[in-house]
Amino acid sequence: MKEWITGRNPVYEVLRAKRRQAFRLLVAKGIKPEGQLPQVLQLAQARRLPIDEVPRSQLDTLADHHQGIALEASSYPYAALEDLLVYSQRQPEPPFFLLLDLIQDPQNLGSLLRTAEAMGVHGVVLPSRQAAQITPTVVHASSGACEHLLIAQYNLAQAIERMKQLDIWIYGLDQAPSSKTPAELRFDLGLALVVGNEGTGMRQLVRQSCDELLRLPMVGKIESLNAAVAGSIALYLARQARLQRA
Question: Going from the N-terminus, what domains does the chain have, and what CATH number goes with each?
Answer without folding.
Answer: 2-74 (3.30.1330.30), 81-244 (3.40.1280.10)
